[in-house]
Amino acid sequence: MVTGGQRSGKSVFAERLALNLSARPVYLATARVYDEEMRHRVEIHKQRRKDQWKNLESPLYITENIFQDTDIVLLDCLTLWATNWFFELNEHIEEALKEMKRQIEVVINTGATFIMVANEVGLGGVSANAMQRRFSDLQGYLNQFIAEKAEDVYFIISGIPVKIK
Predict the structure, then answer these.
(1) For 59-84, how does the pLDDT look when each residue is reduced to its tens digit (9 = 90+)?
(2) Residue 77, pLDDT score
(3) Mind telling me the catalytic residues?
(4) Are 107 and 114 in contact (CB under 8 A)?
């Protein structure tokens, strides 16, 4: 697991980890593109990765992909995936968390090696907005679940990785 704040360098670090483990890793993107700004962000990620990666897109059902036990899979990112489920299930965090946990269990049981990227959205303080507070709860619960399952957890601060597990 690779976690940290927005623009902390999480994805770049996670990409390096994956490339150290495989000459052709799998990039599992969870983003939905809603506007031009988001399209630009996605393009920056794609340009950085070039053709070295096998690219998959799964905004909701990561289990629809078939992974081999030899695959190195970078799931980027859990926060966007949680956002998709949060709104797909009308902000019901218990239902969203249950479905995401179920899918995580399925994919990790394939034997593939997963590197999962997540934001620490709760570090910025408590929002005045109830919906944002519910989402922060969902993300926090998901991050705890992933961190418990992960062999290694890195927290990225200003581009500097700190191994915390």
Answers:
(1) 999 999 999 999 999 999 999 999 99
(2) 92
(3) 45
(4) yes
Strands (E), the chain: 2-4, 26-29, 54-57, 72-76, 113-119, 154-157, 160-163
Distance of CA 62 to the CA centre of its chain: 11
Instruction: Please state the pTM of the whole predicted model.
Output: 0.91
- 108-160: per-residue pLDDT in tens? 999 999 999 999 998 877 777 899 999 999 999 999 999 999 999 999 999 99
φ, ψ for residue 22, nearest 5 deg: -155, 145
Q: What angle do CA 57, 123, 99 make, to 5 degrees?
A: 40
CA angle 97, 101, 107 (to 5 degrees): 145
- Residue-wise DSSP of 102-119: HHHHHHHTT--EEEEEEE
Q: Is there a contact between 60 and 88 (Cβ–Cβ < 8 Å)?
A: yes
